[in-house]
Amino acid sequence: MTIPASPEALKQAIESALGDRISRIDQNLGETTVVVAASAYTDAAALLRDAPGCQFEQMLDLCGVDYSAYGDGVYEGPRFCVVLHLLSISLNQRIRLKVFCPDDDFPVVASVNSIWNSANWYEREAFDLFGIMFEGHADLRRILTDYGFIGHPFRKDFPVTGHVEMRYDAEQKRVVYQPVTIENREITPRIIREDNYAGL
User: Fold this and answer.
1) CB of 156 within 8 A of CB of 66?
2) 165 has which bridge partners?
3) How many CB atoms lie within 10 A of CB 23?
4) Region class of 136: left (phi > 0), else alpha (psi between -120 and 50), else beta
5) How far is CA 171 from CA 154, 164, 167, 176, 180, in A?
6) Which of the 8 DSSP states describes residue 125?
7) H helix intervals, 19-64
8) Is 57:117 a contact under the CB 8 Å cutoff?
9) Burial 36-71 (b: 16+ CB within 10 A, else e)
10) In 10 A of CB 6, how many CB atoms?
11) CA-CA distances (angstroms) from residue 200 to 16, 189, 194?
């Protein structure tokens, strides 16, 4: 088993490989996080995969993040971010790569599916749940929600109850969609103080 490089050596290898493509690099709790601009994203991803000292052959995870309510709403940066977790099997090391979408109203970043083919379904999931578009993805369609679903349910401004509900209608003998009928209410737990509750 290869002994992983020290955090400082890993940071130097990443800085050497990416140069001015890095917007920020942080090390906290033994983890390295690299932030790159959307314009440098695919170049940085390919370099992290191939450069000596990096060699992150495997993308373990990719997800979207909505920062709109981050820090109790005082956060002022871009709203949507794509986060990747990368693994170097040959060098026994991991990093987190982050890229922020430049436009909050229409979040778009490039697809990295041609760099790590494991990105395919993860990018579809981030599109489905957050509405993040991945330019160059060959089959960007919903993967978790229904075909007729409207909106992106992991966005902070999406209502918890949703907009429509689906149910089977016995009279029509088919599935139907209708506006949500769930009423918002506060549920206060009731404490039972009966001495002889349930015959105990």
Assistant:
1) yes
2) 178
3) 16
4) left
5) 34, 20, 12, 11, 20
6) H
7) 41-50
8) no
9) bebebbbebbebbbeeeebbbeebeebbbbbbeeee
10) 10
11) 71, 21, 10
Structure tokens at 183: 């009423």
The first and second tokens of residue 10, run together, are 């890993």
How far apart CA 98 and CA 106 sit, in angstroms, is: 18
For residue 194, what pLDDT is reported? 59
Enumerate the domain spans of the chain: 7-147
What letter represents residue 121's amino acid? W
Q: What's the full length of the chain, in residues? A: 200
> What pLDDT does 84 receive?
98
Does residue 50 sit in helix, strand or coil?
helix
pLDDT averaged over consecutive 10-residue blocks of the chain (200 residues)? 84 96 95 97 98 96 95 88 97 97 97 97 98 97 87 91 84 88 67 58
The two three-digit tokens of residue 100, written as one number: 């922020």
Distance of CA 20 to the CA centre of its chain: 25
- 83 alpha-carbon distance from chain centroid: 6
Tokens 């709109």, located at residue: 68
- Listed in sequence order, the residues at least 6 apart from 72 whose beta carbon sits closer than 8 Å to its beta carbon are none
End-to-end CA distance of the chain: 60
Q: CATH assignment of 7-147? A: 3.30.460.80
List the structure tokens of 167: 């149910």
